[in-house]
Design a protein that fits this description.
By secondary structure, this protein is α/β, with parallel strands linked by helices. It has helices at about 5, 25-30, 35-50, 60-75, 130-140, 160-165; strands at about 10-15, 20-25, 55-60, 75-80, 90-95, 100-105, 115-125, 145-150, 170-175. The chain has a domain at about 50-175: Rossmann fold. The radius of gyration is 16 Å and the shape is globular.
């Protein structure tokens, strides 16, 4: 399937979670077998082309796409988790959200020094979570210079924020508006 055909599988829900927001719901894409498979093909090709040695996924939907991309490429998958979910010593990073803060944690023993890790997530908006993930992986010793997304919302500036931090963005599709 082409990216345009895959894009047509994403449902837009107006006024969620607040008035004026156009929510891009990927559950309709995930539930469509051929669309999901094609999405994974595109993501895996992009990760391979960028020299991925491991794939990191951002909780939670980044786990769906990232783990399957890693499996398709025969690479390891590194989950970047919410606090308190890992049973070992972790490193973490706090980051700002629109209304508050959040935290990502990582088991640093999963990273080999200098390993080229590609970040995968379902959607990039402002880039805060992806930036925190890249920072956390770099603190663990990874080389992180690429992040892959199913959806980019370019008006929200996440791509520029990533590029400013030395991380190139690739997205299968983009939607105007937010």
């Amino acid at each position: 399937m082409t990216p345009a055909e895959i894009k047509a599988l994403v449902r837009t829900v107006p006024d969620f979670p607040a008035p004026g927001i156009l929510f891009r719901d990927i559950t309709t894409l995930i539930a469509h077998g051929p669309g999901l498979s094609a999405t994974l093909d595109h993501l895996a090709d992009a990760a391979r082309d960028r020299g991925a040695e491991a794939i990191a996924g951002l909780e939670a939907r980044g786990f769906i796409f990232g783990a399957m991309v890693a499996a398709r490429l025969g690479l390891g998958f590194v989950p970047l988790r919410k606090p308190g979910k890992l049973p070992v010593d972790v490193i973490g990073v706090d980051y700002a959200l629109e209304y508050g803060t959040a935290r990502l944690e990582l088991d640093p023993t999963l990273i080999d020094q200098g390993e080229r890790v590609v970040v995968v997530d379902d959607l990039i908006a402002t880039g805060g979570t992806a930036l925190a993930g890249a920072d956390l992986l770099r603190r663990a010793g990874a080389t992180v210079d690429h992040a892959l997304f199913v959806i980019d919302l370019p008006e929200l500036g996440g791509g520029e924020a990533l590029r400013a931090a030395g991380v190139e963005l690739w997205a299968l599709m983009a939607f105007e508006g937010h």
